[in-house]
Amino acid sequence: MAKAQKKSGQLGLRMGLKDERIPKLFGLLLLFIAVYLTVAFVSYLFTWKIDQDRVLRFSWKLLSEDAASVDNWLGRLGAFLSNFFIYFCFGLPSFLLVYFIGRLGLNRLRRAPLKPMANLFVKLMLFTIGLAVLLSFAFGGLTDFPLGGGVGDYLVSHLSGVLGGFGVILLLLLLFGLYLIFEARIDFNGSPGQIRNDVVDHFSEMMRLGRKPRRPAPPAARTPAPAAAPKERPATPPSLSPGDRGNFEIDSPRTLSEKGLEQIRGDQMEMPLESVGDVTLVNPDPLAAGADNLIVADGDTGIDTSLAVTEENQDHTEPYDPTLDLPAYEKPHLQLLVEGDTSKHEVDRAELEANKDQIIETLLNYKIEITKIRATIGPTVTLYEIVPAPGVRISKIKNLEDDIALSLAALGIRIIAPIPGRGTIGIEVPNTNPQMVSMREVLESEKFRNAKMDLPLALGKTIKNEVLIADLAKMPHLLVAGATGQGKSVGINSIIMSLLYKKHPSQVKLVMIDPKKVELFPYAKLESHFLAFLPGQTEPITTETTKVIHILNSLCIEMDQRYDLLKKAASRNIKEYNEKFVARRLNPEKGHKFLPFIVLVIDEFADLIMTAGKEVEMPIARLAQLSRAVGIHLVIATQRPSVNIITGVIKANFPARIAYKVTAKVDSRTILDSGGADQLIGRGDMLLSNGGDVVRLQGAFVDTPEVEEVINFIGNQRGYVEPYLLPEYNTDEEMAGSGALSYADLDDMFEDAARLIIQQQHGSTSMVQRRLKLGYNRAGRIMDQMEQLGIVGPAQGSKPREVLVYDEMELTRFIDDLRNRG
Length: 822
Ligand SMILES: Nc1ncnc2c1ncn2[C@@H]1O[C@H](COP(=O)(O)OP(=O)(O)OP(=O)(O)O)[C@@H](O)[C@H]1O
What we know:
Blueprint: H1 2-18, H2 21-58, H3 75-90, H4 94-110, H5 115-139, H6 149-183, H7 192-209, E1 248-251, E2 255-257, H8 266-269, H9 289-292, H10 311-314, E3 346-348, H11 349-365, E4 370-377, E5 381-388, H12 394-399, H13 401-407, E6 414-416, E7 425-430, H14 439-444, H15 446-449, E8 456-462, E9 467-471, E10 478-481, H16 488-502, E11 508-513, E12 532-533, H17 545-568, H18 574-582, E13 597-603, H19 606-612, H20 614-626, E14 632-638, H21 648-653, E15 656-659, H22 665-672, E16 685-690, E17 693-699, H23 704-715, E18 724-725, H24 731-736, H25 750-760, H26 765-771, H27 776-788, H28 808-821
Parallel strand pairs: 1-4, 2-3, 10-14, 10-15, 11-13, 12-18, 13-14
Antiparallel strand pairs: 4-5, 5-7, 6-7, 8-9, 8-17, 15-16, 16-17
The structure holds adenosine-5'-triphosphate.
């Protein structure tokens, strides 16, 4: 009992400390102090002569001495405090300290991070002391007013004794110079006017923000997934029957409500679950296999590592910081998003018991005995993990999926037999009271805040209520599909929000394509911050199919240009390249530049595929195959998960896929290569698959007004003067290249050769020569035509060419298109 009280006391204390009202209260108090001091200080400027005698005579006793009257507008306390700060401490620069108190107050009210405040404090303190010395030195003898305060006067009298008056001036100039070099990082290469502007900008920004992002983030650390603990099984476990309370474990961070059942002790609820494995999707392979071959570190091919230290760069000892392009940019704060309410939802213990009994009973009906069952309660579903009795075949349980679903009279039962790496069988049952996962809580989570990923996506929460953060840069592309109204648009918004909350506009650019015209248009406001589009494009969000084709091809050109840059810099990928650039080892005059990640978002690509077919599919496939190393990543979504939309080519290049609820099992197979998405319950319930592993998630929910708030917050800030423009895509050039090839130009044996290559998925000229009995030259010409049309990749020496088309139906469509074009 005492223990329970102690526990609840501790809990109360913890809740108290976590209570967000406390920092707000503290913030309000600080603001009050700042206003009070400002008024007292201003009053001091007018009343100091009259009050000073009394304050100095009474010292701190002034506060209790009723007899002493003062003129300060804020009474004896005002007179005492202003005299203390201005006369004894820092003189006029004391106002800077009041400014700091005010800033800290605002910071606490907004519950913003504290670290920038510590930086600001150090800077302001140094600045205050420096200014106090300067004022005492320059004007000390001219006025009675303590311009530099006691500190300024004291330092000046000592320093001028040691260094002489002129020495003090030099010292002050030296300190200012050091500050400009180390803290303000002013580039002295520019004209005097430019240097002056930089200095003014620096100080105005420091006062505005209280922080200045300076250094590039350290390279992302990769956390190895902890190995799942081996599980011991009892030698001959007793099998369970309905109603048994033994061997039924519950794992839930949510509150349990009781309906006629005995109280569950707190420690039982907090019982740790063995790890189901790290759900963070980390792909250890740093480069796509194909991309690996593209960067040839060859000294003869114009790699300019010799540029590592150029004349211009020798002066730049500081690393280059891309965020300085927009130094005043402030990332959106969490208060723009609605706070999720987790408190109202509870999980009914009776519901758990009833489901458990139903599962055991149903399995017993089919003569399947189990020895243990445990429940893990997630936001929308509860996972019942069962350990079957020795000798029970897993496939038998899997086959009973529909029967179990029927007997539980619930929709959305998904059976995972076995749970990979666990040796148990999972049965997911939807909760009667699903819990919403708010965008704010996932962005607020430590996992997201500490995520050191290139493109972190806060997707939602797993069955264990853990926030799942995936790195789009490692995925490296994402296909999102699901029937209409199941949460896809919300999911796309949560993906974009994750990037906007984590990244500076210099680090990531979004290319948005929205044929439906209604989903992404609010993001147009981010035009000069986060969006990338074609020169001359009036609407930054692309909606028309012809423009989409242009923009996709332009991205391919951007990709090729980036590969050229990487090759010149002898870098294997964007990360290595940017590291070299930041370390000033690449010369901007040779075309090198900091490369932001580019994320292409297509909301609804079904319409595009239907209207433009190959013209859209081919550049998407090309980008998906090759763009990873140069930092271009694709997120493509569709509400029509059928094979003619999610084609073989698309699928082969998008190993990471998200499936929302679909209506038929066949659709689930189209998206994930397995069933399961048809069993989801909608409203953001989703399956994330990354090359085999499937994780069920409750997607983070972000509402349109919240998205608009965030967009306005960013959009109202100063952006780049020039938006990020993609390379021009010239249709004439296209005509001169692959487009110049008309149907009439094709070799008579072209179609047969293409079919053969696609059937065999083997791009070898000698095979075409041998199997179709063609001469070497003719077979070579046909291969070149196939390359021009994007059916095979370029020649790779003695190795066969890469085949870019995966099935014959696609080929037929492709050739029909060509024939129709004439
Ligand atoms: N993560 C979520 N949590 C809770 N509810 C959600 C979630 N995602 C979506 N919903 C609910 O489902 C509704 C439909 O979601 P959304 O608009 O994202 O569907 P959609 O698949 O994009 O539909 P469409 O394809 O027609 O645009 C939302 O208005 C919301 O009520």
